[in-house]
Amino acid sequence: MSDVNSDIDSLLDRFVHFLLVEKGLADNTLSAYTRDLAEFSSFVRAKGVGSVSKIDTPLILKHLIRLREKGLSPRSRARHLVSIRGFFRFLEAEKILEKNPARLVDMPRTGMRLPDVVTVEQVEKLVEAPDLTSILGIRDRAMLELAYGAGLRVSELVGAKIGDLELAAGFIRVMGKGAKERIVPLGEAAIEAINEYLESSRPRLMRKGPSQYLFLSRLAKPMTRQNFFKMLKEYALKCGITKNISPHSLRHSFASHLLEGGADLRVVQEMLGHIDIATTQIYTHVAREQLKKIHRQYHPRG
Fold first, then answer.
1. Cα–Cα distance between 33 and 139 in angstroms, integer?
2. CA of 96: how far to CAs of 3, 25, 84, 90, in Å?
3. Which fold has domain 120-297?
4. In the chain, what are the domain boundaries?
5. How many Å apart are CA 98 and CA 79, to the nearest integer?
6. Which CATH number fits domain 4-93: 1.10.287, 2.30.30, 1.10.150, 1.10.3470?
7. What is the model's pTM?
8. Which residues are annotated as catalytic?
9. pLDDT digits over 98-119, tens only?
C-alpha cells in the first residue's frame, strides 16, 4: 500500500472511478458519494488514521455521531452511511480488506417517507385541465399524459427526443439515471395526446427551425424542469387539488396505481428504471396502506 497519509484518498479515488466507469452512476449521485466520503476521509485523518486497515466500527460510529451533533437529519446521515458502506464493500471485493467495518453499523432511523400520490380521479382532472384550443394546452396535455402514463422522471420527460418515440409500436425509449436505457409502453391516452401535439401544436412551436427535443416552449426552446413544475402547479390549482403536487407525484402515482391494480413488482421496477428492487418496494407499502384504509372503512370489524 501507499504511505499512510495518502492511502485513504488514493483508494477513494479508485472507488469513485469504479462508480463512474463500472456502475455508470448519474452525476448527482456520484457527487453525493464524493462529498460524503471526502468528509469521512477528513474526519478519519483528523483522528490520526491514514490507512483503511486502521478504520474500525467505533470510528465509523464516531463519525456518524459527529454528523448528528452538526445537525444533519437522520436521512442525511443514512446517506453518508450508504456511501461509507459502498466504499468498504468495494475494498472487500478488491481484496484490499478482509472485513467490512461498516457492515454492523445500523442505519439511523429515518422513518418511511411515503411518496405524494394523487388519486386516479385527480389524475383525470389534471390531464383534462389544459385548454385544447391552444397550442400550449395541447402540448401540456401531451406532457401530463406522458409523465403519468410512462412514469417518467421530470428530467426524462423534458429530455425526451423525437427519435425516442415509437408510437406505432406503442412505446418510448427512455434514457434514465446512469445512462441506463429502458423501454416503457404507452397507453392509448398518451399516444393520442402525443400524436395530436405532433400534428397540430409542435410544428407551430418550431419557429426557429427543427429541434430534436420532443417538448418545446413558446420560445421554441426545449421545455425545462422549471417550466413543467410551474405548469403542473397551475393545473393542480385550477383543478382544486390542494395536495403539494410535484412532477415526481405523477411518477409515484404511476407506480402506486399499477401495483394497486395487481401489476408485478419487477415489471414496475423495469418500467421505473430502478436498479435495485428495494427502491420500488416503497410503493408496495403505499398499496398496503390503501388496502388497510379500505378495510377500516368498509369492514364491519375494521
1. 37
2. 15, 23, 15, 9
3. hpI Integrase; Chain A (1.10.443)
4. 4-93, 120-297
5. 24
6. 1.10.150
7. 0.59
8. 153, 177, 248, 251, 274, 283
9. 888 888 777 665 554 555 678 8
